[in-house]
Amino acid sequence: MKTKIDSFFSGYADAFMSKNLSHLAEFYSLPATFFTEEAEEIVFDESSFCENTRKVLEAYESLGICQMRFSEETHTPISKFLTLVSLQWQFLNAESQLVYCATTRYLLRKQVANDDNTENKLKIAAVFMVDEMTQFLNCLSNQD
Questions:
Q1: Which CATH number goes with the domain that contains 30?
Q2: How far apart are alpha carbons 10 and 130 in whole angstroms?
Q3: CA-to-CA dists, residue 35 to 3, 5, 7, 25, 40, angstroms
Q4: Structural domain boundaries, residue 62
Q5: How many domains does the chain have?
Q6: pLDDT 10s digit of each residue in the chain, 144 long?
């Protein structure tokens, strides 16, 4: 499963950097729930997800972020269909210099295929921002 998780998040990072909002939304089981560090719960449908992500991408552009790398810290199977994955993200500029890093956890859901011709896919069902929002906002405030 680790190879499938690595492949999933590599595709996710590529989709994020391509700025294709509809493709990025395909990585999620929408509506999806995001939890901030302060335990604020935000539920995104496709429209609100794309709007929020567009704003994040604009902020990334203002910070010069053009690369995302990740390392898997842990992954814990919860059931046959659910896995909790913790990633350390590195956000880099065009010179591959670190702009900021953050830890985020994802609840991945294995989508069960409806027919024999469809492969089972992973989808993000929930996101837990361990320190991502704090790091992101600190980076934005230091930009001024």
A1: 3.10.450.50
A2: 20
A3: 26, 21, 24, 17, 6
A4: 2-143
A5: 1
A6: 558 899 999 999 999 999 999 999 999 999 999 999 888 999 999 999 999 999 999 999 999 999 999 999 999 999 999 999 999 999 999 999 999 999 999 999 998 766 555 556 899 999 999 998 888 888 888 876
